[in-house]
Fold this protein.
Amino acid sequence: MTLTRISLAQFRSWPRLDLELDRRPLAIFGPNGSGKTNILEAVSMLAPGRGLRGAGAPEQARQGKDSGWRIRAQIGDRQVETAAPPGQTRAVTIDEKQMPQTALGRMIRIVWLVPAMDRLWTDPPEARRRFLDRVTLSLFPDHAELSLSYDKAMRERNRLLKDQVGDAGWYRALEARMAETGAALTRNRQQALVAIMSAQDAVATGFPAASLTLLPGEGQACDTDPSSIAARLDTMRPRDLAAGRSLSGPHRADLGASWGPQDMPAALSSTGEQKALLLSLMLANARALADQPVVLLLDEVAAHLDSDRRAALYDQICALPAQSLLTGTGSELFDAFGPRARRLAITRHDGASRVQEAA
């Protein structure tokens, strides 16, 4: 099952775009602000969640927040549409039947790397948690439902805590749900890290392989025993009441990474090595999904790589069992692909993006 066609209407800078896709890597180039990343963002909206920019639906409409947009795609023999009509939230239909966003994660797995993620290893823990959960979701589609269930129970518990409700009976059912879903979330995260590290070790890529660890942060966030989690929530309730929020659980987890024979922490590595580590993880993520349909989105990925590493990256992309879309400011950034990649030139005129097939 592959993504063979995507059509945009009033999405970001594109009044309309109809794009046919095949298995070749697609190199999209053009000046900054021309609309390259908007194509990648549209593809990322074929996954559950808010896409690679994390934007709300009103922000993605070309004509402003009071207008709407639509994305249609052909994935295998399935017709997929996701749209945000004016003033409404995003909806998903598959073969003309309305479906939850989580259904998208069972059709195709979409993995991305964008420049904002270059700060991942120095950002606060919540950024690494989001990254980890996106990787985990690509491997375990049930992770989305578990996250939603856990977050809903935690929000209700936090409301009780904020209102200083002291009766334990109000908390028990919520804490039991947090314990069950929290343990499952942590198991998924741990299994995802094992899968990524195994995929890294399986292939020599020219990029550093990271040793990944799920860190408990400040909230004993790595527990996979529901009864232990429930007991901790009960014990910590007085402290949580004082804070007005839940201080323990998988929502406080962090991702640790180190590399090389000296186990250099990612946060202490050079900017170039941090970027290389991220690329290594993205390549491993795609390889770990070898039995699934995968689309890999790499935004401005080549700009800060030397020529040798750029060539190594393109060799790995061509070897992946995945569709790949890349962006860059100039066609020369993709010369190392040679004839293996298809190229699109993007320009912008009168506020609208335009596309042209390039040699």
Summary: Helices lie at 36-44, 125-139, 143-162, 169-201, 226-235, 237-243, 271-288, 307-319.
